Amino acid sequence: MPLTAPELIAALAQHEQQAAVLALAVRRLENAGTFGEHGAVNSASWMADNCRMSLSTARSWVHRGRFLDRFSVVADAAVAHSLSADQVAAMQRLNRPKYEQLLSESIAMLTEVLAPLDVKGTVTSCALWRQKADAVIDETAPPVDKERSLSMSRAGDGALLGRFELDDAAGTELEKAIATAVTFEGDDDTRTLAERQGDALFDIAAFFNTNHDNGDGTGRHLPHI
Predict the structure, then answer these.
(1) CA 105 to CA 109: how far, in whole Å?
(2) 3-state secondary structure of 207
(3) Which end of the chain has the smaller Cβ count within 10 Å, N or C?
(4) Which is nearest to 78 in space by CA: 58, 99, 64?
(5) Where are the alpha helices (DSSP H) in 33-54?
């Protein structure tokens, strides 16, 4: 059946409109549990078995139906063909758990913005929406806990042995404190650098304990911090 160019455009639009209606029908049957009555594991497998389509194609129908059913404003636009099938597909790719709340809040405005665009513009706009959504999610996410840990135990001779792991900020503070507290008593000082840093750590702890309200620290050379 030969068609003129305008007729072909109209026929394809009608085809996409009908596809949107059918996707919603798939969702209605899924909600009703109709597929289970025929012994199918799920709606996609039933469609693959009975509609002579691949499982991936059947899943596409199911996912499109779920998306349109969830967002009625998109469904109305698809049925009216103010959004093409490829435009709906671009929007559907935003339907991820991390964007659930933001997409629900902005879906009406997004539909209105995308309706007059072509597919390329729709894809670009959806990518921009995703970038802005990621920024909003990052701003509202709780701060990540710093990775700081310290484990200590006493050896048989009473020595305290331990291992610590500090994030960059805490490590910098410790390095500055050690550098400030470390001492060198000239040519007669035979301590290694490790021993001098160990003494500096002792001085820092003793200084804190001596000057803390609840402390009963030991008296020793106290560095000027």
Answers:
(1) 9
(2) helix
(3) N
(4) 64
(5) 43-50
